[in-house]
Amino acid sequence: MHRLGILASSLFFFSLSTAAQAGFGEKTMRAPMPAHSVDRGLILPRGWFEVELGASQKTSTSSWDSSGQRVAWDHSKWLYKTENLKMTLGMGHRSNLWFEVPWHQARLDHVATAGVGGDSDWSIKDASVGDTRFGWTVVLTDDEESGTTAAFESWYKGPTAAESPGTFIGGPLNVQQFVFTTGTPDMYLGFAAKVRGGPVAATARVGYVRRFSSNVQYLIELDNTQFAGRIQPGDQLRFELNGQAQAGPIELHASVDGLLRGQVRVGTSSGGVAPNRQLYALEGSDGAQMDLAFGAVVNANRAVDLGVDMRLPVMGEDLMFFPIEDLHPTAGTTVGAHVEVRY
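-> structure tokens emitted (343 positions)
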């Protein structure tokens, strides 16, 4: 992972230097790139290569109960950090390819209750590469007169993060590992549309995530003497509504992001071509999630953007699968920043 960090840093500084040298000059093979975010379409123009480096931090001191109410934790705090590297290639007039790899760091702190015998402060922390994703976006229509763009979006997530919870021998305080993945692959198919008019724009997205099943290390099944259980996370219906406003080189945006989640199914693998026949649904594992997000981007020039964001939870589900953020996210405020360099 140290090598991965060196590679990412080298790639970033190489992209930054090449952008500074040639990012302002137009090439014959490159399509025009609008200077402001509000004027850009849903894909990176042909001939451009973009590297995005981002970092975010979520702090949680509460969770949702089974009725959807926010419940404060008395003595615990959950910290979840993510560094992210994403690369996008404008392949043609109507398509993009992109690849994304995150790095996660998690920490759970407990503060002892005064006057309770035997209670003491403790902390568990861990880190892992996250689940990698690669995607393909195709523009279906792009009308310059009306400022309307529509696109088909797809991506695939591979389970590459740590999924072993470690050993429970010696009690829970000896466990120093977290699970950072569902351990299962996902496939997303969806559509997006953006309407631009003067200094403002609006974008809508809707899509479906098919979540496949797999045997995972963190799910233990003892009734049938199979130590590795099979899990199928609930499929998701996702939506996003985003508004943008441009004021000179500064773009402001706000969005509502939500999803409807199906029930999680667990059990053991069955023989034959249908390994999910012996899975059963967990009552209460489905539900809805909604976040409000706000942010600003500084369009330094066509080659460099700098941005900051904040995400606030509005509704969610109880933590049946804590601390797996990709199954039931904790209720916390997330702040982040990113830099985009393109050439």
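The chain has one domain: 2-342.
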